From TrEMBL:
It is an enzyme of class 2 (transferase). The lineage of its organism: Bacteria, Pseudomonadati, Pseudomonadota, Gammaproteobacteria, Enterobacterales. It is found in: Cell inner membrane. It comes from the Bacteria. InterPro entries: BphY/WalK/GraS-like, HATPase_C_sf, HATPase_dom, His_kinase_dom, HisK_dim/P_dom, HisK_dim/P_sf, PAS, PAS-like_dom_sf. The gene is phoR. This is Phosphate regulon sensor protein PhoR. Its main location: membrane.
Length: 432
């Protein structure tokens, strides 16, 4: 390894240049001129090497410095080593930046780095998707020009970032924004999509409000009748009416609690086993007997069943789905209505369908029928004991079987509720 440049080495090199002139001058008596020529040679030698160094620094594209001799050798070698160190540091810095950006791209949040004034310095891919930024086109743009929301502008101008800001975007999504110091003169904006969280919270509030309302009515009736029984003697006829009403309200609460438990059990079963063999023929025969007893001749009920068509699935959930659809047809149609229940093979799979020629449902109600506690006619539903949970149960049960509920209806013509189980769930009935 070359030795580093030192004063001693420079002096030795000067002596080396001057020694021949000194020895020659002792014999020919021109010592001053010879020493001057030696010094000039030293200057020309250094000037030549400076030209080589300048050419390499500014004109030569090669990465290796020129070859040096004597005092210039350690200088060129030192420059070469410094260049290698710089290249290594640049590679390490590039890898560090690449790792940072790769990690930032993997985060579930939108990240935006801005200056104190709000000019965008960098953003990750999720920020482009969620906030609508374009990169690198928006590099240097002020973030307030891209997110034009008054509350966000106030949040950035006030520079008080101790609490997050929840912002509703123009596309309907909700984002939670947090801003924090990142480095000298820079801010880091972290935006997270909280749309689902807000929707779930809204659903939870509505759910508890609806449950409280549904339970309050029968409890009020029961409490009133209990006070009546306690405070006064009742005649047999009135007493029987009171007891009958109390029994109906108790059954109503019992049905509501049972359906709530069923819905909760279906919703909280993400790994539902759908590999169970379900005998749909036997299930529908039992259901036919039950609904004929429930209707008591008030409806014309027709079952059309393919007895060779059976499926794989979850028996309890499929029973809840088909029974709720048929019971709804009985409970919510007028006497004399024709109700047709069909279980048939279709090209897409196995289709279950319940249709009637009743009063029908207005088109504006159809998209919301599977919502919890939603009723088309609240007064009539309460009179028939409907809780508004039946179709919600059907929706979640079918979701576990890769199916959806299809609803069509027309006022004065009738309604049709149907779903199709896909081909991979169909199992032919084994022949004896």
């Amino acid at each position: 390894m070359l030795e580093r440049l030192s004063l001693k080495k420079l002096m030795l090199e000067l002596v080396f240049f001057c020694l021949p002139a000194l020895l020659t001058g002792l014999f020919i008596s021109y010592l001053p001129w010879l020493l001057l020529i030696s010094v000039l040679a030293v200057l020309l030698w250094n000037f030549y090497n400076q030209l080589k160094l300048s050419h390499w620094l500014w004109l030569d594209r090669s990465m290796t410095p020129p070859t040096g001799h004597w005092n210039w050798a350690p200088l060129f070698y030192g420059l070469y080593q410094m260049q290698l160190r710089n290249r290594r540091r640049r590679r390490e810095l590039a890898l560090l930046i690449k790792s940072f950006r790769s990690g930032a791209e993997s985060l579930p949040d939108a990240l935006v780095i801005t200056t104190i004034e709000g000019n965008i310095f960098w953003c990750n891919g999720l920020a482009q998707q969620l906030l609508g930024f374009r990169w690198p086109e928006d590099n240097g743009q002020n973030i307030l020009n891209l997110l034009r929301y008054p509350e966000f502008s106030d949040y950035m101008r006030q520079q008080v970032f101790c609490l997050p800001l929840t912002l509703q975007l123009n596309n309907g999504h909700y984002v939670e924004c947090r801003v924090m110091p990142y480095s000298a003169g820079q801010l880091l904006l972290v935006a997270r999509d909280v749309t689902q969280m807000i929707q779930l919270e809204s659903t939870r509030r509505k759910f508890f409000a609806n449950v409280s309302h549904e339970l309050r009515t029968p409890l009020t009736v029961l409490r009133g009748y209990l006070e009546m029984i306690r405070d006064q003697e009742l005649e047999n006829a009135l007493r029987d009416k009171v007891l009958t009403t109390m029994e109906e309200q108790t059954k109503r609460m019992e049905i509501l609690v049972k359906q709530l438990l069923t819905l909760s059990r279906i919703e909280t079963a993400p790994n539902t086993d759908i590999n169970e063999r379900v005998d749909m023929t036997m299930m529908l025969q039992i259901l036919q007997h039950e609904v004929e007893t429930l209707s008591n001749g008030r409806h014309q009920i027709i079952f059309t069943i393919d007895r060779q068509l059976n499926v794989f699935g979850n028996e309890d959930q499929l029973r809840s789905a088909v029974s709720n659809l048929v019971y709804n047809a009985i409970d919510h149609t007028a006497p004399g209505t024709r109700i047709e229940v069909s279980w048939q093979r279709v090209p897409q799979g196995a289709q279950f369908q319940v249709s009637d020629n009743g009063q029908g449902i207005a088109v504006e109600h159809l998209p919301r029928l599977t919502e919890r506690f939603y009723r088309v006619d609240k007064a009539r539903s309460r009179n028939t004991g409907g809780s508004g949970l039946g179709l919600a149960i059907v929706k979640h049960a079918l979701h576990h079987h890769d199916s959806n509920l299809d609803i069509t209806s027309e006022i004065g013509v009738g309604s049709c509720f149907a779903f199709i189980l896909p081909d991979f769930l169909i199992k032919p009935l084994a022949k004896p």
